[in-house]
Each structure stands twice: as C-alpha cells, then as structure tokens.
Amino acid sequence: MKRRDLLKTAAAATAAAVAAPYISAAAAQGREDTLLTVSEGGPNNLDVMGVGTNLQGYEASWNTYDRLVSFAVKKDANGNDHYDPDKFEPELAESWDLGDMSTTFNLRKDAKFHDGSPVTARDVKWTFDRAVTVGGVPTFQMKAGSLEKPEQFVVVDDYTFRIDFLRKDKLTFPDLCVPTTGVINSALAKQHATDKDPWAMEWLKNNESGGGAYRVEKWVPGQELTYRRFDDWKCGPIPKLQRVIWRTVPSAGNRRALLERGDADISFNLPPRDVTELVEERKLTVVGTPIDCCLVYIDMNVKTPPFDNVKVRQAVAYAIPYQKIMDVALYNKARPLFGGSEEIKDAKWPQRSPYSTDLAKAKSLLVDAGLPNGFETTFSFDAGSAGILEPMSVLIQESLGQIGVKITLEKISGSNWRASFTNRKLPLLTNLFAGWLDYPNYYFEMALGKTSIFNSGDYDNASMMSMVRDARFERDPAKYDEMVKTFIKIAFDDVASIPLYQPYAYVAMQKRISGYRSWFHRQMDYRTLVKA
Description:
The protein is an alpha+beta fold. It has helices at 3-19, 23-28, 55-64, 121-133, 136-143, 172-175, 186-190, 201-206, 252-261, 272-281, 310-319, 322-329, 359-368, 386-401, 414-422, 440-448, 462-471, 477-494; strands at 34-39, 69-75, 81-90, 93-98, 102-107, 153-157, 160-164, 214-220, 224-229, 243-248, 266-268, 285-290, 294-300, 334-336, 375-382, 405-412, 428-434, 498-509, 513-514, 517-518, 530-531.
C-alpha cells in the first residue's frame, strides 16, 4: 500500500468517528436545499465589530447582514465568478445619487430584519455611528474611506439616508461594501444595551441581529453554526439553499475524508498538499483564486532590540529559505513574493521583494550589526493555520540557525492569535494580512500605519505613511503610480516586513455544487450556491 493511500485510509477511519455523532445532519445534507460545509475553524464572534473577531466571524456577518451596496461580479481568468472591485450594485439601497460632497441612498421599502421589523435609515445611521465610535478594527476600517464622524450620517426620512463627505476620497464608496457596514436591527440591539455597553457589544457577540439572506439558527462555538434561509429577504434573488450546516473539523485529513466519502459538500481554506492531490484525482471540483491585496509575511518588532537595527532585519530577510517554504510547506500552491528587482517598476501590490536566500550575506550583515555570534529570540505563529505555518516555521528556524540566530517556536492558539499580535509585544512572527480594498495605499495604511492594530511589528515611518495617505487623494494616475512605487521601495529598504508569498483561497466541493463566488474576505458566500 502506498503512503498516500495509507494516510487516506487512516483519515477516512478517523472521519467516520468524527461524523458519527452527526449522522442525521450528514444524511440531511443530501437534500438539494441543505448543504454541509467543513472548515478548520469557526467564528469566535457573530459581531463583525466585536473585539478580536476572527475571519470566520466575518463570514457569519457577510451571510446574515446586508450592506447598502456591494461589489458587482465578473469572471476571472478561469471563468469563475469573482467580485469586481471597480463596479457596484444595489443591496439595501435600491439606488443612490452621488453628489459633489455627499451621496444620498434610497433604501428598499420592503426590506425587513429577521424579526419582521422594517429596515429604515435610522438603523443604517445607528450602525454607521457604532462603527466609527467603538474603536479598534471597525473604526480604523471606516476611517480608511474617510467615514469618521457620526455627523456625516444623516437620516433624511425613513427610507432615505445620506453620507456627507469630509473629503473627496477614492476609497469611500468601496469601503461601504465591506462586512463592517452590515446594517444592524438597532431597535433590537438597543434592548440589550446598557450604560456601560451602549452599543450592545456583549449581546451582539453571541446573537445575530441582521436582515441578510440567512439567519443564525444555532451556534455552538468551536463546533457548529447552522444558517436558515430568510424567506422574506428582498435584497437579491432568494438563495436555493434553505439550510447550511457549517461544522468545525480541525483536522485537514478528516475534512478531506468527509469530502471524499460524500458526507460533506464543501471544504474551504484547504492545505496545499490536499489541493495538489485532489486536483490530480479529479473526483471533486477544486477552485483556487489568488487573494487580492494579500500576503503572508514575517514581522520583526522594530522597537525591540536587535530588530531595531535595520541591518539585523536585512540579515533575517536574506536568511529566509524562501524556495524551501514554497516546495515543502506550500507545494508551490502560492505566488512567490521574493527574488524581485531592486528597482520598483510597477505600482502594484503585492509584488516581489528584492530579497532572496543568501546566508553569506545574512551572516555579513549580522557582523556589521555587531552581532557576529547571532542572538536568541522567539518566533510566533497562529496554531489555527498550523498545517502550513508549522512546517514553514521549522524551516525558518533551521535556516536562521545557520547564521547564529537561535529561535524558539511559539504556537499560539487561533482564538488568542489576534490578541497576541495586536499588543505589539511579539519580537518575531509570521502573519497574514489581506486588504479588503484592492489598493496598495490601503494595504500599507492598514498593515503598517502607526495606529493600526495590524501593525504587529510596530513599524513607524511618518514620512512614508504621509505619502501613503496622500495617495488616497491623488487624482493624477502618473503621480499616484510614482507615489506607490516610492513607498514600496522605502518599505523594502527598511524591511518593514518580509513578504513570503501571496496565498490562494482554495475551495473543494462536490461536483453537484455550483455558483461559487470568490470574495475579497476569502470566506464562503452561500447566497449564490446551488446543489443539484
């Protein structure tokens, strides 16, 4: 028996044990209107504005809340549906009037929340007021589109809502399409607000209060979330799927076995090895899409010695075993972001950095930095993505060891990962950041801005960030491109972070499933899926 077959047999046996308690659910998913999806992790919060809400929490919000507008859809190079970052279509707002310094939205008069109450402009304002007030990720995200003050959001009447602009910002309208702006049933949320919690953060963490295509029927954190179709949804075609069971199955082998036996319909965020083998076997439909404005990178805390020395950061950049990571940890199922030119020729992001593996150069830089014998440090990574990050971290540990840098690996649980990296105390880590808006300046402001919680390396370059912010408002394409190329060059020279690769979002599904659509948030959208 081949090793691959042995592994698959063992995984199938384990998957049978995993699925056993859910026989009725697994059987039910055979119906055309019910779908069973499995993933490595589930949501830790149903509130997209909650503190530390993870990626899976964004999925829960996307499917259960509506936004004023959404991105339109186009076909990618492989003929698959992909969101179109340059076009917009109605969702809660059936139309809008774009003025010079404001936009007026005309809301659907038949839209309802899941409790049957109408969606009004007051709910939209309360949602937007909340987003710009609660702080953290939602407030920073809104500010990226110059949505900053409650006074900007005006209730004209029950079904007319206006946004007044603080400035002409090319990111304002795209920023309305992200999960943060999902409209909340304000009357229901206010019933659970308190003086200490005026925005009902505690209640909305565990309770959904939207009007989207699906409502949360049941949620057992860490195990399972069940969506039920909202049949009174008015913001698009009624989904074909009446019920979606989203199950957390941490083991990649178990998820794959459930798929191959037909006990699950979809698995997303697959490990690269499984992607390679499933594509070869052709028993399932596998869709891979490069994640826009996204990269996996290494961060070094620039305020913590020895990483406050740019030569040390450059030494680490030259000691990374880039190609080994691509071959061993990723099975080459990603786009490399290393070995580029010293000259920045394109105003695009992400792009290849000028660094590649050169241990002699790395060692020389450490000598120049006054550390000929190297140093010791801790390298942290998210256990929730250990399937890729653990072998990658081991390779980095081994390679840095060759220049005298002794690394202790620290695997942090997925539920605690965001809290860990946002406190800016980790000296060396690997992380992923994906910009919801596909603009280089947006990525840099979100990932490297002084006040951004995603700036885990505590990078601080005021002149560069001033240029990044100015690019948002530059209308001359040639000047914009030059600004982008300049701040990318500064970031590479400073080693603000070390790009490793641009990941792909991979989804495997039964061949009877169609209608998959790739979104910037790289989570599942069940509204368009069809099960034949």
